Amino acid sequence: MKILVINGVNLHMLGKRKEEHYGAFDLKQLEDCVTKYAKEKGVETECFQSNYEGAVVEKITKNDADGIILNAGAHTHYSYAIADAVECCGKPVVEVHLSDVENREDFRKFSVLTRVCVARFFGKKEKSYYEAVDFLIKNK
Ligand code: DQA
User: In the annotation, is 22 catalytic?
Assistant: First the structure.
C-alpha cells in the first residue's frame, strides 16, 4: 500500500508558525515522522508540499498512491478547485489539520473538503496524520 501525504499552502512554514496550534516540528520533521509511522505498519509514503492550488490539484489527480492524506491549509476553507479534484480523483482522501480548526476563528470552522473526503482528523498536531494513516489502512 502507498499513501500520498499532501501539505498545501503555508505548511512549508511549519516550525515558524504558532506552536500552540501547529506544534514545533518543521515540515521535514512532520513528513519524516508520518513516513516512519506508516513504514512501521508496512505502508510506503510519498510526501508533497506546494503553495499553489493548481499544483495540489495536479498531484491529487495524477499519482500512483492508493490513498491520500490532505492538509490543504487555508485552501481547505474555500478552494472548490481542490474539492472538485478530490471528488473526481477516484481515491480515498482523508482531510487532516494539525490544529483544532473547530475551536479557532470562525472562518476555519468551515471546510469545502469535508463533503468529498472519506474522513477528517484534526486538532492533534502530527497525531492527526497518524489517525489518517490508520484510517486508510483499516479501510483499504
Ligand atoms: C491548518 C488549518 C488551516 O485553517 C490553516 O489555514 C493552515 C493549517 C492546520 O493544519 O491546522 O494553514 O490546515
Answer: yes
When pLDDT is cut at 50, 70 and 90, the band that residue 86 belongs to is very high
Per residue in 68-78, pLDDT (tens digit) is: 999 999 999 99
Strand partners, 5: 47, 69
**H/E element holding 137?**
helix 126-138
CA atoms within 13 Å, Cβ hemisphere of 23 = 18
Contacts of 84 (CB under 8 A, 6+ apart): none
Q: What angle do CA 41, 45, 47 make, to 5 degrees?
A: 145
Pocket of ligand 1 (CB under 6 A): 10, 71, 73-74, 76, 97-99, 101, 108
* DSSP states along 41-102: TT-EEEEEE-S-HHHHHHHHHS---SEEEEE-GGGGGT-HHHHHHHHHS-S-EEEEESS-GG
